[in-house]
Amino acid sequence: MIQVAPLLVLAFLAITFLQSGYDKIKDWKGNVEWLTGHFANTILAKQVPFALGIVLVLEVVSGILCVSGIIQHLVQDVVIRGLGFYGAILSCITLLFLLFGQRLAKDYDGARTIVIYFIPAVLVVFWLN
Questions:
Q1: Which residue windows are transmembrane per the record (predicted)?
Q2: What residues have CB less than 8 Å from 56, skipping those under 6 apart?
Q3: pTM of the predicted model, to two decimals?
Q4: Using CB atoms within 10 A of its CB, is residue 97 exposed (0-12), middle (13-18) or buried (19+)?
């Protein structure tokens, strides 16, 4: 039986992270420049390219796992502990990394935005657990 709600949230996470990863790859230099200023007064000031690389990998792998989970659910009817479950967990971890960065930079509006993404990500972990 196909569960539509988890598939919709997995699609939301996949779109979010794959598009964000694509943007980071396409405009690496611009992202590094902007983030260098954003994190200028933090412990990440000299680590921006490295930190951005970590976030890029987390986002792309999260997106791929979410897409794979959707396909797995549609083809194999796997609902519990499938690839989507692990994609949702990695999505939550990725969002926690992003939240940490926003809080570190004292960008509280940005941190609040991350929470909006975190809620459905946790919800889909709950649904697929």
A1: 47-71, 83-104, 110-128
A2: 21, 24, 25
A3: 0.93
A4: middle
24-61 in b/e burial notation, b at 16+ Cβ within 10 A? beeeeeebeeebeebbeeeebeeebeebbeebbebbbb
The three-state DSSP-derived secondary structure of the chain is CCCHHHHHHHHHHHHHHHHHHHHHHHCHHHHHHHHHHHCCCCCCCCCHHHHHHHHHHHHHHHHHHHHHHHHHHHHHCCCCCCHHHHHHHHHHHHHHHHHHHHHHCCCHHHHHHHHHHHHHHHHHHHHHC
| Contact (Cβ atoms closer than 8 angstroms) between residue 95 and residue 86 | no
Contacts of 10 (CB under 8 A, 6+ apart): 66, 67, 69, 70, 84, 87, 88, 124
Rounded to whole angstroms, how far apart are CA atoms 59 and 87? Answer: 10
